[in-house]
C-alpha cells in the first residue's frame, strides 16, 4: 500500500486459517488499520495479492460482503436513529443472502443483551456515551453472524465490565459460530486472552508471528528475580528462575526475604521485539540494556 511516494505496507504476507482468531499488534502508524481496510475492501491496494474467502476484497460483491462483519475504528452516522432500529436495519441487509437452513442474522434482542445494550434499545444513537456507541459498533459488526469479523481496536473506550462482556462475546463468536476473527488492539492482555496467533507489524512489515507463548519464548532468559538479604534488595535476570531460587536458598538459606519472580510477559516480548526491529538488533539485547 502506497500513499504518494510513501510505502506504508510492504512485505505484509500472512494466511489466516478458517476459525482462527488473530490479533494484529503494532505501534501507532505501523499500518494495522490500513491492512484491515485492504482486507475489508475499503482501501484499494497499490500492488500485491489479497484473497478473503477466496475473493479479491476490492472486487467483493454484496454476497461476499454479507459473509464478513466489520467494526471500524470509528464511524459516526444515523444520529437520530434508535439503537434497535439501526441494528434491525443492518440485520435486514443480510437477510437476502442467508443460505438455506442457516440461522443468520443474529436476533437483535439477543445481541443487545449480549452487549448489555438492552436498556438502551430505544435510545437515539446521538445520546450514547463513547463506550455505549462502541458496543453498538460491535453489535453492527456481528449482527450478520459473519464468517469473518474484522475488528479495529474494538475495546478502545470500553469500561472494564464492557471489556469483559466483549471478550466473552468474541470467545462465543469464535467458538460457537466458528467465525474467523482478525482484530487490532493495543491491549496485550486482550490479545493474549483471545488470540490463537499474534502478528506484530512494525513500519508496514510483519516482523513476528506466533502464539503468545512462542513470542514470549523469544525473549526467554528474561525472568526477573527480586529478593532481599540483610535488608539489602537485589534484582537479576535469569533464564531459569527455579534453579536461580534454589541456588539463592542454598547460599543464604533463611536470610532470603521478599522473593519475587516475574516471568517475561507478552508485553515484555512485544516491547523487546518492536524495539529490536526499530533498532535493527536481535530481540532481548535492548531489554538487557534497558534492565
Ligand atoms: N489516507 C492516507 N494518506 C496518506 N497516509 C496515510 C493515509 N492513511 C494512513 N496513512 C499513513 O499510513 C501509515 C499507517 O497508518 P495506519 O492507520 O494503518 O496505522 P495503525 O497501525 O492502524 O495506527 P494506530 O495504532 O495509530 O491506529 C501511517 O504512517 C499513516 O500516516
From TrEMBL:
Primary localization: membrane
Alphabetical list of CDD domains matching this protein: ABC_DR_subfamily_A (cd03230)
Localisation: Cell membrane
Record's bilayer topology term: Peripheral membrane protein
Gene Ontology CC, one term: plasma membrane
A matching Pfam family: ABC_tran
Signal peptide coordinates: none
Keywords: Antibiotic resistance, ATP-binding, Nucleotide-binding, Transport
Keyword Nucleotide-binding: yes
One biological process term in Gene Ontology: response to antibiotic
Domain ABC transporter, first and last residues per copy: 1-228
Domain of life, per lineage: Bacteria
GO function terms (MF aspect): ATP binding; ATP hydrolysis activity
Family annotation (SMART domains): AAA
Name of this protein: ABC transporter ATP-binding protein
Organism of origin: Desertihabitans brevis
Amino acid at each position: 500500500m502506497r500513499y504518494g511516494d510513501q510505502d506504508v505496507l510492504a512485505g505484509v504476507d500472512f494466511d489466516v486459517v478458517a476459525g482462527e482468531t488473530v490479533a494484529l499488534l503494532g505501534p501507532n502508524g505501523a499500518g494495522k488499520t490500513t491492512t484491515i481496510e485492504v482486507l475489508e475492501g475499503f482501501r484499494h491496494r497499490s500492488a500485491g495479492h489479497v484473497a478473503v474467502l477466496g475473493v479479491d476484497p476490492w472486487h467483493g460483491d454484496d454476497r461476499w460482503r454479507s459473509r464478513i462483519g466489520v467494526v471500524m475504528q470509528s464511524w459516526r452516522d444515523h444520529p437520530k436513529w434508535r439503537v434497535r432500529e439501526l441494528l434491525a436495519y443492518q440485520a435486514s441487509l443480510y437477510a437476502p443472502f442467508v443460505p438455506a437452513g442457516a440461522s443468520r442474522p443474529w436476533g437483535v434482542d439477543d445481541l443487545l443483551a449480549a452487549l448489555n445494550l438492552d436498556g438502551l434499545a430505544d435510545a437515539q444513537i446521538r445520546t450514547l456515551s463513547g463506550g455505549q456507541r462502541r458496543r453498538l459498533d460491535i453489535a453492527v459488526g456481528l449482527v450478520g453472524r459473519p464468517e469473518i469479523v474484522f475488528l479495529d481496536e474494538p475495546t478502545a473506550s470500553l469500561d472494564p465490565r464492557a471489556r469483559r462482556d466483549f471478550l466473552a462475546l468474541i470467545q462465543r463468536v469464535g467458538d460457537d459460530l466458528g467465525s474467523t476473527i482478525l482484530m487490532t488492539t493495543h491491549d496485550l492482555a486482550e490479545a493474549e486472552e483471545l488470540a490463537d496467533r499474534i502478528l506484530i507489524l512494525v513500519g508496514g512489515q510483519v516482523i513476528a508471528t506466533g502464539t503468545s507463548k512462542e513470542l514470549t519464548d523469544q525473549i526467554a532468559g528474561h525472568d526477573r528475580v527480586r529478593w532481599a538479604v540483610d535488608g539489602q534488595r537485589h534484582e537479576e535476570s535469569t533464564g531459569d528462575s527455579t534453579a536461580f531460587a534454589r541456588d539463592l536458598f542454598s547460599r543464604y538459606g533463611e536470610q532470603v526475604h521478599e522473593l519475587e519472580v516475574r516471568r517475561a510477559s507478552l508485553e515484555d516480548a512485544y516491547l523487546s521485539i518492536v524495539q529490536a526491529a526499530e533498532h535493527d538488533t536481535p530481540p532481548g539485547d535492548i531489554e538487557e540494556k534497558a534492565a
